[in-house]
Amino acid sequence: MSEAAATASPPIRAIDSAFLLRVFYVFAVLAVLSFGISVGGKWLGRSIALAGHTDDPTVREIVIGNNVIAAPANTIRFERQRHDGVATRLDLYLRWPQLDGYTNAARDDFNNTNGARNILFLSFEERMMSRDMSGRLEPIYGPMLVRPGLAGPGGLTLYAFTEKSGYLDEVLAVAAENTGEAFVARCLAGESATESLAPCERDIHVGDILSLTYRFPRELLGDWQRLDKAIRAKAASMSILNAGG
Predict the structure, then answer these.
(1) For 138, which of 16, 77, 83, 216 is 20 to 30 Å away at the CA?
(2) Is the pLDDT of residue 48 over 70?
């Protein structure tokens, strides 16, 4: 080998090393990007599949007035409410009759697949009225009702509202209970009822100056006694406590 050739060899080896190092960096970056895309894709895919739901069972403690409501995250309807802390309102959704929250196994029910209607919508907030819906029957609703009413499911009587009532597209479902307090619920009528997943609603007093409004499918009117009892029991089980005590 000539002296000139020997002298030229080291630069060639230096160039080769630098090139290999650059190749290594390129592949390393591609590997990191590939991993990131894979993880991000799985996260995004899961997020899209859940479509606003969560299957997280972590219990959140929400304070409304003097009340603490302990609710699993997968029963809380809106993502913005799925955290501990003070709030003016809490919205839940539950599957009937299990009264549980969203899970992968129950996704068809919560997504209304095949027209299924068995989701209840509950809203807790501080009371705005001194009387609940049952207490408003005679003083508030009474003068606005068209009498006599029509026989409804489960021993209910359905009353139409007068034209000046503001509830023209609704009916009032009423049934006397053994305690003397009437069961009262308002339901949408006609096409509006057909389009709504939960066209009936009722509000009751719970906790410490707290109001619970629950909306339900009209198909459950005939089972109103079991429904109302179950909702009250569920509210009690969610540890509605006196936050100031």
Answers:
(1) 216
(2) no
8 Å CB contact between 137 and 145: no
Coil/strand/helix, residue 32: helix
- Dihedral sign of CA atoms 136, 140, 141, 146 in order: positive
pTM of the model: 0.79
* Two structure tokens written together for 71: 């609710």
Q: Are strands 200-206 and 89-95 parallel, antiparallel or unpaired?
A: unpaired
Q: What are phi and psi of 191, to 5 degrees?
A: -65, -35
Coil vs helix vs strand at 94: strand
**Nearest to 213, CA basis, from 103, 129, 149, 141:** 129
User: Can you list the alpha helix ranges (DSSP code H) found in the chain?
Assistant: 3-50, 107-110, 191-195, 224-237
